[in-house]
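Cross-check.
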Amino acid sequence: ATRAAANQELRERLLVRLLYRVSSLINHRFGAHMDAVCSRPDFPGRLCRHFLSDGDSAPRLNQSPLSRRWSERPKRPRLSLRRLASFRTLMVLLLIYGLGAILSFSPVSSSIIILTGGFLYGLVLTLLQDKLKTH
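Predicted model, tokenized:
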């Protein structure tokens, strides 16, 4: 059992490193464009901040002064693929692709459906966030 756990941990580390490199490449290439869109005060700017802001921005209680100073710096918008680095998320995506294959969807159309669903989910959350702030 320990050998299997060690193999899974190794695969997870490799997956995290691969996703980090991909997201770093995208952030380096499109960072200026993401900054420009996320700095807008209108709805596209709020939507961009929803997708590209770090979700771990909640204050932590036990921080050293150096890490507190580091966390208080303004954070640039960036793409983070960290959510994909769990096998649970990958299994859900695999099941969705399997369901798409059963329903005779191609992998491309399944990908488009998944991306559209994720975008619509973020769109609804952004709209609801705006409605909750006005009330």
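Residues 2-38 form the longest helix (37 residues). The helical segments are 2-38, 43-52, 65-72, 87-102, 107-134. Passed to J.P. for a second look.
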